[in-house]
Amino acid sequence: MSLILRPPLPLNELSRVTLFIAVAIADTLQSHLGLEPGIKWPNDILIKERKISGILTEAVTDMDGIEYIVTGIGLNVNQLREDFPEEFRQTATSVLEEVGHHVPRIPLLQELLLQLEKRYQQLLRGGFADILEKVRELSTVIGKDIKLDGIKGVSYARAIDIDNNGFLMVRDAMGNIHQIMSGEVFLHHPADESQ
Known about the structure:
Blueprint: E1 2-5, H1 15-33, E2 37-40, E3 44-47, E4 50-62, E5 65-75, H2 95-99, H3 105-124, H4 128-138, E6 145-150, E7 153-162, E8 168-171, E9 177-180, E10 184-187
Antiparallel strand pairs: 1-5, 2-3, 3-4, 4-5, 6-7, 6-10, 7-8, 8-9
Helix pairs in contact: 1-3, 1-4
């Protein structure tokens, strides 16, 4: 699905949008299906370390801030493992795979829209601190060693927090702390370096 949002937010708070959506998806999976999701910063929802949902956000901005945002949400609902391309079968999952039965999509969509509206209104009322607390609680990367594939190439660090703007805070091998605004994050295990 795609959402068009027109939040009256400054540009430096743009990443908050992806995070409120991630929390709304997690809320839906918890309340509607009894699943235990994790949020892999910045835009993936995982169940047992396998991706069930992803978020893509594009903003149109002007000098005054955000004009509008288009957010695409993908949620794997009734796919079997063999329905995924071979290269994703070990890393992806679906609602069907996790709950063990077919799930009607309309009631699931209705619950997701309800949770999105609830979290969006919370964001607009200045309640990002509570959203951020939920992101931190569900984070699959905070406190772990990560491999970051970003604008400056591949680097390794330890994820230590998510700041008030929704940026990932990492500590490099030299002990320096960096603020990461975007990039693909993978959990890193020392054995990975030999591969």
